[in-house]
Amino acid sequence: MTDCDPFAEGERAARENIPAEANPYRDGSDEHALWAAGHEKIASATETRESEGS
Questions:
Q1: pTM here?
Q2: Rounded to whole angstroms, how far apart are CA atoms 1 and 38?
């Protein structure tokens, strides 16, 4: 298995409309936080575009 990047995985999950609750990492771990941050970055950008009508 290749080295994973939890932040990038979270971004990809958000682009694929996978809910934040699907975070595969143990709650409280650094990986969990990174995955959540990546997911939030994309999800919030998507919500902003949708609310602006783009």
A1: 0.82
A2: 21
